[in-house]
């Protein structure tokens, strides 16, 4: 006869322990290769070796990929920080070149302003990483800032300059309200040009541009 006794649960979330016992004279012979199930904890049986399912890597085309509010919020903050740094260097360089090198071509001025925007963005991020909540050393902060996504910054700078050139011809006129309106449009365009890439990179790989 088989006799089954139930013990008490070790914790409220654990299943009851069921131990199978039997009289000594009815113990199975050691010569037999069958092993009775003596202890059952209520968990599903382990999968056979080689049958473990691998976690599917999240895809850009998944239905839920683009609906993470937390990722959109963090990506927006990262993109805004990048936008501030890029815009400061970009417009400062354009104004300086226009004031002191008026004969310089528009193409060259745009290229220099883009390089200035990338540099100012990295410098700003270095300062924020050093003096902000991260409290990195200057060397660590500079290394981290240099490792930011250049794709994101180049996309932002390119769209900003294309829109600005289309609206103002690349001219900086601080007294003209039209210049500020065009600047607002170009800055907004640059922000939304980089935002989806920053979101996708953060959502899929857990990496931010900052």
From TrEMBL:
It comes from the Eukaryota. Keywords: Membrane, Transmembrane, Transmembrane helix. It holds the Pfam family DUF4396. InterPro entries: DUF4396. The chain crosses the membrane at residues 179-197. Residues 71-207 form the DUF4396 domain. This is DUF4396 domain-containing protein. It comes from Lojkania enalia.
């Amino acid at each position: 006869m088989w006799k089954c006794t139930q013990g008490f649960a070790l914790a409220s979330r654990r299943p009851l322990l069921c131990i199978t016992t039997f009289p000594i004279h009815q113990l199975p012979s050691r010569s037999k290769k069958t092993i009775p199930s003596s202890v059952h904890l209520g968990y599903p049986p382990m999968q056979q070796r080689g049958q473990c399912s691998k976690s599917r890597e999240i895809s850009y085309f998944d239905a839920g990929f683009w609906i993470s509010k937390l990722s959109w919020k963090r990506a927006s903050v990262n993109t805004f920080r990048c936008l501030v740094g890029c815009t400061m260097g970009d417009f400062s360089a354009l104004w300086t070149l226009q004031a002191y090198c008026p004969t310089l071509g528009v193409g060259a001025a745009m290229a220099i302003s883009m390089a200035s925007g990338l540099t100012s963005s990295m410098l700003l991020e270095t300062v924020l990483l050093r003096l902000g909540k991260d409290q990195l050393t200057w060397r660590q902060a500079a290394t981290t800032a240099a490792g930011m996504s250049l794709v994101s910054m180049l996309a932002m700078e390119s769209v900003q300059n294309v829109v600005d050139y289309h609206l103002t011809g690349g001219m900086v006129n601080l007294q003209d309200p039209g210049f500020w309106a065009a600047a607002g449009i170009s800055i907004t365009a640059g922000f939304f040009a980089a935002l989806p890439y920053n979101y996708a990179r953060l959502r899929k790989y857990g990496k931010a541009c900052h």
